[in-house]
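User: What would this chain look like folded?
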Amino acid sequence: MNKNPADIKEEFQNRLQWLMLCRVMVASFFLGIAIIAQLQRSESYLAPHLIYLYGLTAGVFVLTFIYASLSYKIINLKLFCYSQIMMDILLITALLFITGGINSIFPFMYSISIISASILLYRSGSLLAATGASFCYSLLVSFQYFGIIHPLQIPAFIARGYSEEPLVYPVIVNITAFYLVALLSSFVSEQARKSRLQLKEKQIDIKTLEALNENIIQSINSGLLTLDAEGKIITFNKAAEQITGLTQAQVYQRHIAEIFGDSIKLYQITGRQTNGSIPVRFEAPFTKADGKVLQLGISSSILKNGTEQEIGNILAFQDLTLLKEMEEYVKRMDRLAAIGRLAAGIAHEVRNPLASIRGSVQVLQKNLRLSDSDKRLMEIVLRESDNLNGLISNFIQFARPNTQKKEPIQLKHLVDETLQLFHNSAECRGNITISQNISEDIYFKADPQQFKQVIWNLLINAAQAINDDRGEITLTAHYTAGGLTAARELNPAAPGASPKTKVEIIVRDSGCGIGESEQDKIFEPFYTTKERGTGLGLSIVYRIIEELGGTISVDSSTGHGASFIICIPQ
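Assistant: Here's the prediction, encoded as C-alpha cells.
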C-alpha cells in the first residue's frame, strides 16, 4: 500500500517523539537508581563518581531537548532517527565506562536501544543498532583488557567474574545477545507493521464500503428512512428530503408519527406481519409545510443487525401524487369517450324527429286559425325545440369536435373580440367588472372559432358563479419559460417575441368557488351545480383544449372564487 509522503513524515515524527520520551524515562530511572545507590556508599553529593553520573544524566536531557527542537526542521527524518539510535549507543558505552567497563552491570541497556531501533526502523534499524552496540562494546572491553583505558570502578555496579575470564567470552556472549535481541524484536516489529498495514487497508476498505453504501442510499430516487426500535428516525436520504421538504436535521430522533401523522398505523410502522421477510406495502397521505397533500406509496420492512436481531425498521416511499392524477385522468378520459360515443348516437337519432316536429308545428301555425293561448303554446314548442337543438349541437360538438384548422392567432385580439360580444350578452350583468392583462406579443396556433368558444364558455361559467353582489372576472396570459419555439416564428412582426414553449391563460373570478369534492367532476358532461345549466360548457372546453394538445385545470376553494388555468403548446 502506497503511503502519502506527508503521512510517512508524520509517522516518523510520532516515533521520534516516542523515542525521546522513552529515553528520558529510562535514563531517569536507571541513572536515578545509580545515583541513589552511590549516595548510600558516599558521604558527599559531589563525589567524583557522582559528578560523572550527574553529567551523563544532564547530557541525556540536553540531547533530548536538542532532538525535540530539530525534529520539525529536519528533512531526512529517517537519517535523524538513525543518528539518535547511534548516539544512544555511545551514551550507553559512556555509562559502562563510568560503572566499571567489562564488569559493569549495564550492558543490557544496549538491548533496550536495539529494541527501540527495531520498533522505529524495523529490521534494518535493529541490525544496525546491534552492529553499533557490538562494535562499541567490543572496543570498550578490548581497550580495558589491554590496559589502553581504565574505566571507573564504582563498587555498586560491578559484576565480578568477567575480568578473570578470557576476553572472547564476554564479547561473544554479549554480541550474540545483541543480535538475538535484534532478530527477535525486528521479527515482532515487522509482524506488527504488516498487521498495521493490513488493518489500515481493511479500514480503508470499510470506509470505502461505508462511503459507497452512503452514496447508494443518497442516490436512490425513492425516499428512504430508518427507524430505531422506538420508531424514531435515524437516517433520512436526499430523496426523502426532496419529497417531504424536510431535512435530516429536522426529522432526526423524531418519532415517525410526528412526521407522517396518524395515517401510518403502528402495525404498519413496526412491520408486524405473518412473515417478517415480506415487506408491508400501503399508501398514506402526507401534508407538506406549504399545505400541499401528497399521496405516498410506502413499503415497510424490518431492520436487523448482523446477528439477525430486530433493531428497527426501514421505510421506502415514493410520491404517487402524479401517478394518481394520471390514473384519474385516464379514468376520466375513458368515461368521456364512452359518453361521447353514446352522445353521438343519441344526438343524431333525436335531431331528425326533432326537425320533423319543428317543421310540423310551423306548418300548423300557418294553416290553422289559432287562439292566442294556442299560439303561445306553439311558440313554446318552437322555442324549446330550438333549445333542444342547441343542446344536441353542443352534445355533438362534445362527442365529435370539428377538425381544428390551426392557424396563428393573436390572443389579445381574439380575447378583445370575445369580450365585446360578451358585454352585449344577457349573461354579462351590470354588477360584473371584466379586465384583461394580455400583451400583444402572445401568439399560438389554434382554430380561432373554437378557441373563442373556449373563452366564451369560461366567461359564462365565471359570470354564473358570481352572485347578485359585485364581482370581477380577470383574464391574464403569459409565456412559460424554457423552450426553443418562439412567438416570432408564428408572427415575425410580434414585438418582444422571445423563445418560449407554452402559453398559459388564466381566467379568474371572484365567485362562490368550487368545492374540492366537485373539482374532479366539473369537466364531466351533464355535471352542473346551476339550476339552468346543461353541464356541457366546461366539457366542451376540455375537449377543445385536449384536441389542441393542451391542459386545463382549476384552482379553487369554496367561497374564494375559481381560477381556470389553460396551457397551450406552441
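DSSP finds 15 helices and twelve strands in the chain. If you want, I can go into more detail on any region.
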